[in-house]
Write a structure and sequence with these properties.
The chain is an alpha+beta fold. 30% of the residues lie in helices and 40% in strands. It contains 3 helices and 7 strands. The protein has a 7-stranded antiparallel sheet, covered by helices on one side.
Length: 149
């Protein structure tokens, strides 16, 4: 099991960061670097939740079906893995958004990745070593794209 924690600062206000995390429209794959449109499907959604499948073709294809839950008042987003070809039970993401200096946001991220199969265990081991920096960089790029749109 890999647990990765990192923080980053975005010039976007918390509401815009929350919107980028929970926008399940057609531009999702344009904003988030690890989601391609061929591996993205919305199964259902409502106020404060969505169930989606997301993934990409990297490493022979990695996908997971997830349940997103968010609370705009608390400025939190939780993503629980329901099914995946790479991640097992207990895998999740937790985001906490705090207003930062100058109207921006401090984003606190914790990811728990329980590798499933050889591929999941290998990717999980790599995330344990270099995951925080890689995931922080990917999120910074995604929020930069969200800011530009």
């Amino acid at each position: 099991m890999a647990t990765i924690h990192f923080q980053l600062h975005s010039p976007l206000p918390p509401e815009a960061v929350l919107a980028a995390l929970t926008d399940f429209g057609p531009r999702r794959s344009e904003i988030w670097p690890n989601i391609d449109s061929a591996h993205f499907k919305v199964h259902g959604h409502g106020p404060g939740w969505a169930e989606v499948t997301e993934g990409n073709s990297v490493a022979g294809g990695v996908w997971e079906r997830e349940r997103y839950s968010w609370d705009p008042a608390a400025k939190t987003v939780t993503i629980e893995t329901l099914d995946s070809n790479t991640w097992g039970p207990g895998s999740r993401w937790d985001y906490r958004l705090t207003p930062g200096p100058g109207g921006g946001t401090t984003v606190d991220v914790t990811a728990v990745r329980n590798g499933k199969g050889v591929k999941g265990r290998v990717i999980g081991a790599a995330l344990s070593v270099a995951g925080a920096g890689v995931l922080r960089s990917q999120m910074e790029r995604a929020l930069g794209r969200a800011r530009a749109i």
